[in-house]
Amino acid sequence: MGLAEDVATVRADVSNHAQNFFLYWFKKQPDYQPYFAIYKNVKKLEKLKDMDKFVSHTTAVLTKLLVFVDKNENAPGLRIESKKLSAMPQHIGLEEQHFTDLFAALLEYLEGPLGPGMDKAGWEKASKNIIKAIANEL
Question: Residue 119 pLDDT more than 80?
Fold first, then answer.
């Protein structure tokens, strides 16, 4: 598969992938869970799926990340999205490393559901472009 096909596959079940990705990310990098006020005190991660806000929030986040992936080779479009992201109050104080860690975890997670046909090189290139664009706006 190519990157566009991978993105379409994820979008086809975005809510499920979003929830599973966040659980994967919080298990892999537990220091990130406290960045999300409504999740920080949840000890049993599987309980997060019972929270309506978890479902809607994670879906919104992954949907936005996929918009970035769509625009990863469109410098002006990526810059516009990066400016919007950096202007959100919840992102004040975040640094490039936070986004590097986020995308590293996302790519690792996606290797499972996308399997060996995943366009890993495409995702890595897109991630680098996205992280650079975001870092320029922080």
Answer: yes
